[in-house]
Automatic annotation (TrEMBL):
Residues 106-136, 146-175 form the 4Fe-4S ferredoxin-type domain. Belongs to the complex I 23 kDa subunit family. This is 4Fe-4S ferredoxin-type domain-containing protein. GO terms for biological process: mitochondrial electron transport, NADH to ubiquinone; mitochondrial respiratory chain complex I assembly. Keywords: 4Fe-4S, Iron, Iron-sulfur, Metal-binding, Translocase. InterPro entries: 4Fe4S_Fe-S-bd (IPR017896), 4Fe4S_Fe_S_CS (IPR017900), NADH_quinone_OxRdtase_chainI (IPR010226).
Amino acid sequence: MSQPLARLGLRTLRTRPLTTHVGVRAFSSSVARAYEESMTPKDKYGRPDYSKGPSALDKASQLFFMTEIFRGMWIVLEQFFRPPYTIMYPFEKGPLSPRFRGEHALRRYPNGEERCIACKLCEAICPAQAITIESEARMDGSRRTTRYDIDMTKCIYCGFCQEACPVDAIVETQNYEYATETREELLYNKEKLLQNGDMAEAEIAANLQSDHFYR
């Protein structure tokens, strides 16, 4: 990266050497060594200097003794005895951020009352027009939703509905395993969304609490 910038007359920033963080395995030393040895020498202007490259004798010895093959096999041998980087999904699952945007849900207050006030801000802000809301007036003059549909086949999981809601009624849970066999099953109605919220209320409240400093 520094050589093309040098040819353009640009200066690069001085960076610290790469360090190994706690819990992260170090990069293979043989890979780094092979990379350094394969770099072409540069002249004083930073251009490749092929006159100082490997001689014909060096190339012949590498070809005869198959050093490149043994170097590659050594890298394979190093990686063979290291623990795997993968996990056994679905029996093992990686950590999720509290801000993960998955399946939608409607929340209730602790007394069982629905949080949604039918302001329709989520419907207005949805860029995919996946939300449909119908409402009616209550006896006290407030409004309640009679219909709250989300077409999950249209949803782009942008999180705008959750950010626009003034009462934290519509949220996106950390559930990402809701594949279906038919398209109709992905057309969520109000009852389905409330059911999702009831099942994941503790998790939703904990995630919102951990993220409230940044909202």
